[in-house]
Amino acid sequence: MFEPENHKDLSGLNTLGFLVYADYFCRPESEKACQEALGWARKRDLPVFPLGSGSNLILAADIPGLVVQMSNQQRHYDPQADGSVLLTVGAGVVWHDLVMETVGKGLYGLENLALIPGRTGAAPVQNIGAYGSELADVLVSVSAIRVCDGKPVTLSREACFFGYRDSIFKSAEYQQGRTDQVIITSLLLRLQTKAEPKLGYGDLAAELEGKEVTPLRIARAVCRIRQSKLPDPAEVGNAGSFFKNPVVSSELAQSLKGQYPGMPVYPAGEGQNKLAAGWLIEQCGFKGTRRGSVGVYPKQALVLVHYGGGSAEGLLALADDIVSEVKHRFQVELEREPQVIL
């Protein structure tokens, strides 16, 4: 018989460490257990909220209804005739553990995504990405349970409508219930046995210069770079990159480059360029700023941190000031990466 936890403290289940509570909470270990939990919520007409590791969320209020955190751990590797490998992986698997497992097997596809916090089931929500790679590059489909009736469904990569740090799961229609809400239970990924490294980012290329390139070596290099720049959520509360790198017209990018020759500018498709949000924030003087219990990480201006005992409201107020100042100075609008749950 299904019995959820009541009034669950979620401070240890979101990487910013904000103290909020869930009315009810459960950790299903299988699709069947997930269906049972959803049935329990339907009978009581309760809303359902899926939770990974809370690494891309700003929990600003208690969560009504039932919070579901999948904990299934299955992996199944299926070698294909073309040299690729199809991997089915449970939503409850820790993402970084999965990356290191696959690169340890000599498989390419996830190596640039090492050390990204969170669980595998949450990866499609954000279309997680780093160093020129993103989940959409390797994802074949998402398996899930539909909240409204408990039926299993499969969403193709195309049905997920992936964008830059975006997906259907973050859309207003989905959040407001106009699209069928689901609990993701597993992912199907296509990995490669043949070398397909992406080494376009300068710091990653520099780390591997003169070395034989393997997926394991790439993943370890990514870990070293990330650890040198980003705080460990276990030590300092944070949600990773707080803002997306803005994509602007090439005209604006070149105009800004003329004013600021040291500004990083990257190609982003025809007529567009991507700018480094962290650089823009640093130029506005926010790097290392602290306001009570929240601040901007001293080593990376793209990361906002919570030192403990603070509130989401304080963090969001700081973020708003950053957005305003960057807009005023550079005519560039920054967009927040993590979702705010009010």
Largest sheet: 5 strands, antiparallel
Order of helices and strands: EEHEEEEEHHEEEEHEHHEEHEEHEEEHE
Proportion of residues in β-strands: 25-35%
Silhouette: globular
Which ranges are low-confidence, i.e. pLDDT below 50, for 5 or more consecutive residues?
none
Q: Give the overall average pLDDT.
A: 95
Number of strands: 20
Oligomeric assembly: single chain
Please state the CA-atom Rg, rounded to the nearest Å.
20 Å
GO cellular component, one term: cytosol
Protein name: UDP-N-acetylenolpyruvoylglucosamine reductase
Catalytic activity: UDP-N-acetyl-alpha-D-muramate + NADP(+) = UDP-N-acetyl-3-O-(1-carboxyvinyl)-alpha-D-glucosamine + NADPH + H(+)
Keywords: Cell cycle, Cell division, Cell shape, Cell wall biogenesis/degradation, Cytoplasm, FAD, Flavoprotein, NADP, Oxidoreductase, Peptidoglycan synthesis
Written description of the protein model:
The protein has 3 domains: 5-68, Uridine Diphospho-n-acetylenolpyruvylglucosamine Reductase, domain 2 (2-Layer Sandwich); 75-192, Uridine Diphospho-n-acetylenolpyruvylglucosamine Reductase, domain 3; 237-341, UDP-N-acetylenolpyruvoylglucosamine reductase, C-terminal domain (Uridine Diphospho-n-acetylenolpyruvylglucosamine Reductase, domain 1), CATH 3.90.78.10. Helices cover 26% and strands 26% of the residues. It has 9 helices and 20 strands. It has helices at 31-43, 95-104, 123-126, 172-175, 202-208, 215-229, 250-259, 277-283, 312-330, and strands at residues 5-9, 21-26, 48-50, 57-59, 63-68, 75-79, 84-90, 129-130, 133-134, 139-146, 152-156, 182-192, 237-241, 247-249, 265-267, 272-275, 290-291, 294-296, 303-306, 339-341. The protein is globular. The mean pLDDT is 95. Pathway: Cell wall biogenesis; peptidoglycan biosynthesis. One of its GO terms (cellular component) is cytosol. It catalyses: UDP-N-acetyl-alpha-D-muramate + NADP(+) = UDP-N-acetyl-3-O-(1-carboxyvinyl)-alpha-D-glucosamine + NADPH + H(+). Residues 17-194 form the FAD-binding PCMH-type domain.
